[in-house]
Amino acid sequence: MSEQGSVNGASKGRGGPSRRALVVGAAWTVPVVTVAAAAPAFAASPIAPVTITGNGSTAMVTQIVTITCAATVTYTIQGGAGGSASTANGGAGAIQTGSLLVPAGTTLTLVAGGQGDAKLSNPYSAGANYQSKGGLGYGNGGNSGTSDSYTGGGGGGGSAILVGVTPLVVAGGGGGVYSTNSATSGVGFTTATQSQGGAGSSGGTATVATAGTTSKTTTYNNNTNTLTLNGAGGATGTTAGTAVAPSVTNNTQASVTVNSNSATGSNGGAVGSSVSGGANGGTGAGATAIQVSPLPNIPCSGAGGGGGYAGGAGGSSATLATSRSGPYVELADGGSGGAGSSYAATTAGGVTVSNTSTTTATSYGNGVVTVSWAC
After folding, report:
1. Is 147 left (phi over 0), alpha (psi -120 to 50) or beta?
2. How far apart are CA 141 and CA 54, in angstroms?
3. Is 347 within 8 Å of 64 (Cβ atoms)?
4. Whole-angstrom distance, CA of residue 243 vs CA of residue 267
5. Cα(362)–Cα(356) distance, rounded to whole angstroms?
């Protein structure tokens, strides 16, 4: 039989149960199914799982699902990963699994977070914006927002299931990966091996320490200059991530010229501050480049924070140049972004939530939301 809008149960005839079905953002045509007389009067029919996948930073991916019967809906949701680079991945998103006890006629909104844009690899363009964007609370991943090759990755978007505008469960997005670069010329200067900045922190209960650190030092005889970029703070529960200022240490001899600039990333967004719901990740800050001719101009920025229930902070950045009558060095480093937090309600909109686990994904990519039930 053909049905429009919500799907009502077929009239109960002799020897046959009522038949219920789901509506997923459109009308369905539901065939009448003959059931043997020995079958239970209201045998539940499993519904094919509904799955949506995020789409990077280009478009928010959502789906409306109406449950026509009182049912237990099982779910698995994963936040989008932070943007990556050739040297490292961004932070993976969080995974939430559990079940929802819903009354008949409940309408759920599914939102899949996108992966943040990768660190770009285009030539430097004077006057470009060197910020890296955080991921949306529920939805798109952030983009690097620049045409520069040394910009950190964007933050991953959070994924969510909502009833009305109220979140039932949220999986935080991962922070974007750090950026780093250097240029040297002349005899006498050496550049110490940099520590590999960690990928952006993973979704869930991220902290400053898990976001990774980049550090780079130049030396000339007794002169030492160091850039240290700690990873940005990840959000935890309702507490947004806090940005961490860079450290620039100059131990300068009179004969060595040192110039440096730095910029601190933005804190993560507060709960409910995003127009999409949840909270956006913070923006990675870009430090003004310092050029020593004839070396190229090498600006950079920190990475974007992940979106989620509360947002992860954006990474900070710093640039430094040293010169001494011939030898010269330019450095640029950006810190990784913090992750967005995850969340599970107890009850909301008549729905009871039973969240069984919160873990970190082992794969990197767009967020995914899957729900299934039986009527």
Report:
1. alpha
2. 9
3. no
4. 5
5. 18
The residue-averaged pLDDT of 299-320 equals: 88
User: Looking at the predicted structure, is the pLDDT value of residue 181 above 90?
Assistant: no
Region for residue 203 given its phi and psi (left: phi exceeds 0; alpha: psi -120 to 50; beta: otherwise)? beta
Residue written as token pair 């599970």: 344
Most confident by average pLDDT, 21-30, 57-66, 140-149:
57-66
How many other C-beta atoms can be found within 10 angstroms of the C-beta atom of residue 311?
40
The closest alpha carbon to 375, from 107, 175, 154, 104, belongs to 104
Distance CA 90, CA 135 (A): 12
Q: Is the peptide bond before 294 cis (omega within 30 degrees of 0)?
A: yes
Identity (one letter) of the amino acid at 96?
Answer: Q
Distance between CA 327 and CA 128 in Å, rounded?
A: 28
In 3D space, the residue among 306, 305, 261, 301 whose CA is nearest the CA of residue 285 turns out to be 301
pLDDT single digits (tens) 92-129: 999 999 999 999 999 999 999 999 988 665 555 555 55
The token pair that represents 168 in the structure block: 């039932």
Q: What is the pLDDT of residue 276?
A: 79
SS3 assignment for 172-208: CCCCCCCEEEEEEECCCCEECCCECCCCCCCCCCCCH
Q: Report the Cα 47 to chain-centroid distance in Å.
A: 30
Residue 135 in tokens: 């991921």
Residue 51 CB partners (closer than 8 Å, separation 6+): 368, 369, 370
* Cα–Cα distance, 26 to 9 (Å, whole number): 17
pTM of the full predicted structure?
Answer: 0.82
